[in-house]
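Record ABC transporter substrate-binding protein, 293 aa.
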Amino acid sequence: MREQTVWQFSDDRGQLSTAERRPARVLAYVQAGATLWDHGIRPGAIFGSDHDDRTVPDAAKTGSLPLAEVGYLGAGSTLDVDTLLSGEPDLVVAVSYGGGHVYGLAAETAKHLEEHVPVVVIDVGQARTLAEIGDRFALLARSLGAEEPEAANQDLDAVRHRLSTLVAGADGPRVVALSPAGQEQTHLARPRMWPELRVLAELGVDLVEPAEGPGANWSTVGWAEAAALRPAVVLADIRANATPLEELRTNADWAAIEGAARVVPWNPEPVCSARAHATFLDLVADAVEAAGR
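=>
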């Protein structure tokens, strides 16, 4: 009798998941599913959080996932264990923003889910660098028999060099990351709280730091205050829970920002692969280069 291969993986809660064979039917939180896809793993289904639509996944978060081939089970606290187990997954990959809490699912749902199937949780919070988060996903992917192509890492190295060269020396363009929140206000990102923004700062990009005040991740201000920052580049949150930019066309302060700045789409819940990160950095580099002309 052939000996079965035992699969195991220790997640970011320090919890060891095991199986008698390598998992092949993966259910994943949308961010994790899109990241695994870039490593060559097609999840059987994905789910979202309470910020997401109950019937359609947020296109800003799905990366290059082939959505016609990957089921979407719904989002957040409306999800129950029966729905999550409907595709008979043999592994669930979730994310956490610290404390080991499964993001996107009610605590009781997550607890009962683990009674039926191994759940691996990857910490994507501000305590980790983007590289560290990427390394954890890469390690998980390798345990599942897949790996991101080396060309993706080469492309990432190249665009990191390009961006750091563009902002070296003379004062670079001012960059503001924000999440539109209606006609009256916007949330300005605190760069140190977002792993992808910390990468930009490390490369030398001049990211505006909002004034100290309430809000750990964001500083909420009126549009006039945002316009007064006079950014040359704006990283605009394009998730479904942010106000779409086309709805701000009649807002004079946003019009002033958009008229003077290069606007780059930004997903604060990034796909944590070299491929996706290189694509984002390339867009930023293009905007920085154009702003400097």
